[in-house]
TrEMBL record:
Residues 179-260 form the HRDC domain. It comes from Polymorphobacter multimanifer. Exonuclease involved in the 3' processing of various precursor tRNAs. Initiates hydrolysis at the 3'-terminus of an RNA molecule and releases 5'-mononucleotides. This is Ribonuclease D. HAMAP family: RNase_D. It is found in: Cytoplasm. It holds the Pfam family HRDC. PROSITE patterns: HRDC. Belongs to the RNase D family.
Length: 358
């Protein structure tokens, strides 16, 4: 549960193998979770999750590391043609033919006692997962797609993904300006808010909304009394302790150094109007090829690779190397170089090779 706290509140842990499953109450008086945490970070034990981002964040907060190696069934589903964010219920239905009872889905897991239906629902997460995992693993082996997931699994297991460095909190915000002094104030304000939220264990937005931080950074108040006129703050900030700490963070703020200045957002690099149309054609090709291969498009292409390819970039693009080249990159390159085109035959969209005259 994390609606009212800065740190996610660990309320229940479910563990399962092919032989047994259990639920652990981390809120039980006197319980020692140390043996469990040691198990979760043992490198010789493979850990299986579904959409495990929040689970991994909790383990990182408790141990300072992540439970590698891991296998995330939602990520694996991308390579098996089940979409980019397939839900656990749909995955269980697709592979096991079981309809999960969703009646206890909105349980307040922090309340005690939990009834039998709630516990059965919770343990169902891992009993089905223990059955699901080997089936998905076998299909990945048969299709030779296990290696396709390496980058995604490594990204999920990277501890840096879950570290909340107060000095980097500003990088998650929408920038109100590209001026060094404004960004320096934003960095200081974001750091102040992060520390306040941690200290009070409340969500960041309960302290100050993102938009208000941006407004203050762009138009800083000259005195604490001016905080009463800032949209998004109450009049009490004009003379209370939290308002004083906000103002002190502004006083200490230094302009962002040249090394810290964020890179400018790439604007569809060098794309002319025709280039933008080529990028749109690449998206159509990606849709066709991903459907044919039965793999989620996001697993093939990330970020602005299609725009870069349309603009003439060739070096450093993952789609032009490895398995991505075979499934999509080669055809994408042929399309932008005029060696491949779209055709309609019998009412069906097809790709056709174009023979270039010497």
């Amino acid at each position: 549960m994390r609606e009212t706290t800065y740190f996610p509140d660990l309320c229940l842990v479910q563990l399962g193998t092919s032989e047994e499953a259990c639920a652990i109450d981390p809120k039980a008086p006197g319980i020692d979770l140390e043996p469990l945490l040691k198990l979760l970070v043992r490198e010789e034990v493979l850990k299986v999750f579904h959409a495990g981002g929040q689970d991994l964040e909790i383990i990182y907060n408790l141990t300072g590391t992540t439970p590698a190696p891991l296998f995330d069934t939602q990520i694996a589903a991308m390579a098996l043609g089940l979409g980019e964010q397939v839900g656990y219920t749909n995955l269980v239905a697709a592979y096991l033919g079981i309809q999960v009872d969703k009646g206890a889905r909105f349980t307040d897991w922090a309340r005690r006692p939990l009834n039998d239906r709630q516990l059965d629902y919770a343990i169902g997460d891992v009993t089905h997962l223990a059955t699901l995992f080997p089936k998905m693993l076998e299909k990945l082996r048969k299709t030779g797609r296990g290696g396709w997931l390496d980058d995604e699994m490594a990204r999920a297991a990277d501890p840096a993904t879950y570290a909340n460095d107060p000095d980097k909190a500003w990088t998650r915000l929408r920038l109100p300006s590209r001026k060094a002094d404004v960004l320096g104030r934003l960095k200081a304000l974001a750091r102040w808010r992060e520390l306040e939220a941690r200290d009070k264990d409340v969500p960041r937005g309960r302290i100050v909304k993102d938009e208000t931080l941006g407004d203050i950074a762009a138009s800083p108040p000259r005195a604490q009394a001016d905080l009463a006129r800032v949209r998004g703050l109450s009049a009490a900030w004009a003379n209370n302790g939290i308002g004083d700490r906000l103002m002190r963070s502004l006083v200490d703020a230094a302009p962002l150094s040249p090394d810290e200045m964020p890179a400018r957002e790439p604007q569809r690099p060098g794309l002319s109007t025709d280039g933008a149309l080529v990028a749109d054609l690449l998206k159509l090709l990606l849709k066709i090829r991903s459907k044919e291969a039965g793999v989620a498009p996001r697993l093939i292409v990330r970020g602005d690779e299609l725009d870069a390819l349309a603009a003439g970039v060739r070096d450093g693009l993952p789609i032009l190397t490895g398995w991505r080249h075979g499934i999509f990159g080669a055809d994408a390159l042929a399309l932008v170089e005029g060696r491949l085109g779209f055709a309609v035959k019998n009412g069906k969209l097809m790709m056709s090779e174009i023979v270039l005259e010497p």
